[in-house]
Design goal:
This protein is α/β, with parallel strands linked by helices. It folds into 2 domains: 4-72 and 430-470, no CATH class; 73-429, Alpha-Beta Barrel (TIM Barrel), CATH 3.20.20. Helices cover 35% and strands 15% of the residues. It contains 17 helices and 14 strands. It has helices at 35-45, 55-62, 73-85, 121-134, 154-171, 188-196, 210-216, 226-239, 258-267, 300-316, 368-373, 375-382, 389-392, 397-400, 406-409, 417-420, 426-440, and strands spanning 4-6, 10-14, 20-24, 30-33, 66-68, 90-95, 140-145, 174-181, 199-205, 243-250, 276-282, 339-342, 347-349, 363-364. The strands form 3 sheets. A 9-stranded mixed beta sheet has the order 11-10-9-8-7-6-12-13-14. α6 links the parallel β8 (174-181) and β9. α1 crosses α2 (55-62) and α4 packs parallel to α5. The two termini are 20 Å apart. It binds iron/sulfur cluster (2 copies). One iron/sulfur cluster binds next to α13 and α14.
Length: 471
Amino acid sequence: MLTLSPSRYTLQVPLRGGRTLGYNGLSGGLAVWDADETAIFEAISSGAPVDPASRSAQALLHGGYVVPQGVDELALVEEQYLQHRFDTRSLVLTVAPTLSCNFGCDYCFQGQDKPTGTMTPEVQDGLMAMVERFLPSLRRVHVAWYGGEPLLRLKVIEALSDRLIARCAEAGVAYSAMMVSNGYRLTAEVARSLVQRQVKTVQVTLDGGPGDHDRRRALLSGRPTFDRIVTNLQEVIDQTELILSVRVNIDHRNAERIPALLEHLAAAGLGNRGRLGVYFAPVEAMTSGCHTVEDVCMTKTGYGQLEVELLRQAFALGLASLPRPPRFRGTCAAIRPRGYVILPSGDVHKCWDTVSFPERAVGSIFDLDALARGDRMRQWLSWSPLDNAACRSCRILPNCAGSCAYKFVHAEDTRGEAASLPCPSWKYNIKERLLLRAEKSGVIGPEDIPDDVAPTDPAELCVDTVPAAAK
Ligand code: SF4
Ligand code: SF4
């Protein structure tokens, strides 16, 4: 007879009436278990015999919350992860037309002293030669325009985009693009040019209301930027198709005033616009360029709890959609075989966070053969969360997949709590996020949530801390 075990990727949040909000990171299932299903899950977890053909056992099996005993779920995750990560049909290029920037942010990982050069025509030709080399085996080319501030060199972006789009169209390869910008030069006119060049999304950063933002993200001259950025966001959302993703960096200095920023954005008419979403990120002392901010970084637990409150408020104001657990979030282009960051000098990096450190380049656009063979390239490609004991035993491994390889590959650069705990905020608030999703999508009501629901405890997301039957 079939014997069932709890999936190592199942999370449970108790609800009133003996019911449970169940989630499984491998199947993606999220459902309310009735009292009988909850009891059956508990019985399976404690090793008690249950009838696998019963309605409740079948429902749990169907959602992936329990699995046939002996199924090696870690091996399944590994297989899916490798397939996802080592897909060579996508070329993902991060292109910095310049590393110069008109802002002087205090926490910038690129430091304050950035080079001011522009990507030369020779480097642009080298980039096209790289695309040409891979093109026959590709289905898709994706470009992220990055910097410095990429809009300081709009002409380079326009010229390179036109070449890339034309060449991909000829070869029958899909092309898409996004941009990370500080938003200061993102007028409606500029946005129209970007949309024409197939840039779908621009990520812009606001670090609080005018006071906080202007203290942290002023122009190099010290002049404020908040009002102009918000005006740009309004114009762009009113007049163009561009999708805007507003990132809000949070540390001790601005944490308590982020709710006021959200109110400000809603009052500016940016809520419920469909194409504008806000998300939050903790300031972390990731590279030697930004170690000065170590003292103002929030604790992981403090940030995780604040973030859920902000997500709730942002959703209520129409500034964010409901949180959806990610899939293999840690598979950024840095660890993919065909992911490259191209700098104005022609240096090639793997990770966005190493661009200010020439010694971290993995090669040059002018020597593609050497690029493929270099040791530093191997360092990124051989890193895997599956080699890390904490990640292997983590209940949200299918969601997180190590989150950010930089924190492991260059662990010596990371300071503060992030150095010993590279886990993202999901590890500190996934239960709260699941409750928010279930409540606001109407699966449960506020009356279903017990008053004493315990906050996410990162320790309980480690398989080794749960009863033997669940391993
Ligand atoms: S949450 Fe932490 S332990 Fe889990 S996979 Fe992500 S980085 Fe690894
Ligand atoms: S390794 Fe981390 S910092 Fe580098 S590009 Fe990937 S997610 Fe970003």
